[in-house]
UniProtKB/TrEMBL annotation:
K(+) binds at D122. One of its GO terms (molecular function) is ATP binding. It comes from Urbifossiella limnaea. The lineage of its organism: Bacteria, Pseudomonadati, Planctomycetota, Planctomycetia, Gemmatales. This is Type III pantothenate kinase. HAMAP family: Pantothen_kinase_3. InterPro entries: ATPase_NBD (IPR043129), Type_III_PanK (IPR004619).
Amino acid sequence: MLPAVVVDIGNTRVKWGRCAADGIADVVALPPDPAAWAAQVAAWGLGRGTRWAVGGVNPPVADALAAWVESIGGTCHHFRSPTELPIPLLVDEPAAVGIDRVFGALAARSLVPPSTPAVTVDVGTAVTVNLVDAAGAFRGGAIFPGPRLMALALRDRTAQLPLVELTGSPEGLGPATNTAAAIRTGIESAVVGGVHGLICGALDAAPAPGAWVFITGGAATVLAPYHLRDVTMTREPALNLLGIRLAAAALG
Ligand SMILES: Nc1ncnc2c1ncn2[C@@H]1O[C@H](COP(=O)(O)OP(=O)(O)OP(=O)(O)O)[C@@H](O)[C@H]1O
Ligand SMILES: CC(C)(CO)[C@@H](O)C(=O)NCCC(=O)O
Ligand SMILES: [K+]
């Protein structure tokens, strides 16, 4: 089944991808709100009979979107479990893995040369760093709070810290001279350092050298100014959407 639109349901936002012959042509991130979805259907000129493929880690929103697609005359394939996807999940409890991590893995292994491991980094509501081995199996990874969750936790669990808005521009890791900048510096460093350490851990565990690293997610720009020696890092904003497209295509 080749869908016209693929949808990745996150914990904060709903990402839509418009499929082209060779991949994902356009990506938008929308709130979990049918009014925004209707406006996007109009903007992309999607008619009745449009084929959709949907999956994600926020089941109530995924169910709502799948039902909404059918209410506007679309047909929708809804991926509900990572065990439905055409990739081995070499972890303790395959059904418990976040399906977004597995969509990313599916896409990553389609982008690397044969017998090349891949590491995926998704910086969203949560950050995940995941390993796909040289045989193309998902081998697990790590999960930690994303930038916004860190900022909320500091506000919610301290007496004196304000909620700091994260901007697109990097703060840098040097000593900051006011509270808000100190929090932004700390969060930036937690993400950059955490991702760096986990990429190294995954590369050490990868059963073959030469792994490719893919970076995706709404806050992936946080990592843009930083470089890892000897590692090929590729920004792939549509990584999870590409994985949904591949999973749908594999349905036949
Ligand atoms: N340029 C940025 N710099 C720092 N933080 C950012 C930036 N862009 C987004 N963020 C923060 O990173 C977090 C993740 O961003 P966003 O919600 O866009 O990701 P997402 O991939 O859509 O997440 P999910 O898939 O979980 O819905 C948000 O909490 C947001 O506040
Ligand atoms: C970690 C998140 C929140 C990242 O979106 C998602 O993948 C998820 O809800 N995972 C479930 C638990 C797991 O992946 O092991
Ligand atoms: K995410």
